[in-house]
Please model this.
Amino acid sequence: KRSGARGSGKWLEISWQQALEEIAAAIGKSRPESIALLHGKDTSAGAWEHFLHTLGSNSFISLDSAPNRRAAWKTAWGEGDSVPDLAHSHYILNFGSNFLVTQPDYAAEALDGRIYRRARIVTFDPRCSKTAGLSDEWVPLRPGTDGVVALAMANYLLQEGMGNKSAIARFSNLTVGGLTKELKQYTLDHAANISGVEALTIRRIARQFAESGRGCILTGAGTSGHTNGFNTERALMLLPLITGGFEVQGGNCLPRQIALGALKPKPPTPGVKNPAKHPHRFPWEAGKRYPVSVLFGYNTNPAFDAPAAAAWREALADEGRVKLFVAIGTFRNETWDLADLILPEAHWLERNEPVVGQGSLLPWISLRQQITKPAQDSKELR
Model:
């Protein structure tokens, strides 16, 4: 528990009983809609939703690492993500993702594709990341211009009659002619002027991708993390659409998952709506447009890595706007240093919990089993 001002770095070790009593007392004095969860990746297998709904709250502040990508895919594709079938792909077109470092499962599958399918990996990225450096070709471009490159590729393929008519008819609300008309303004020269990539390079890669027969795209924070990220992601989705790479082997596919089902007994879904309509606006709206009496923090560190980190630090340090901030985590970070209470969570090697496969074409579910006892007095989230 902090023993000085928020963010002063002064702490006092207290018992779990005291911490839980203080949290319970604060919840008891709060309206349900003013109790909120600030989280990144939710690995709780439904525990967080069950907990907040039990309290009558729907106030989830989700700081997804790729919100533009998920929103774009959800709007156009019906799912918040796609799974690239890298192991069976002949051409992997990567925009702004350093997947060889950040996604080991994708890295392993891409290696299978390269060994067994002789897949070509081409990476568009302003910086020479490890993935870019190990690709068959690295194409540096100006930050945030990936979308116009994709639009020029799509336009070129349609103009050359290389579009997959059956795939466009199946997955698009536009005909081939309608799509061609919409894209005609995005020429190779136009894209070259904006992105800094030569028109001949854009044309060559577009042809190679279409002619491979089994191409898929990968996107990452490099494309999603810009103000135009939503439209960039939608533009990139045109490439598997036009080349027939949706829901086929070696292309971009819908996620395959096994649903765990809700924890029982299931509390009723609260009638109140989530007041945080735009989670990334929390620093400006929390405590002003909607109250925050008790804020739980989990798996996120916006005081360090958010684009407006200074605004997050200012908002979280203000006791008039966030009355009680409870952080739960395995490690301390810059955001947790602004909390009133830090509850130590057991490390994943110390936990027993269900794990659902994500980002895989083979749906799976497993039980993570504890291999060592939790250090000192840390506990599993649930």
Remarks:
- The longest strand covers residues 322-329.
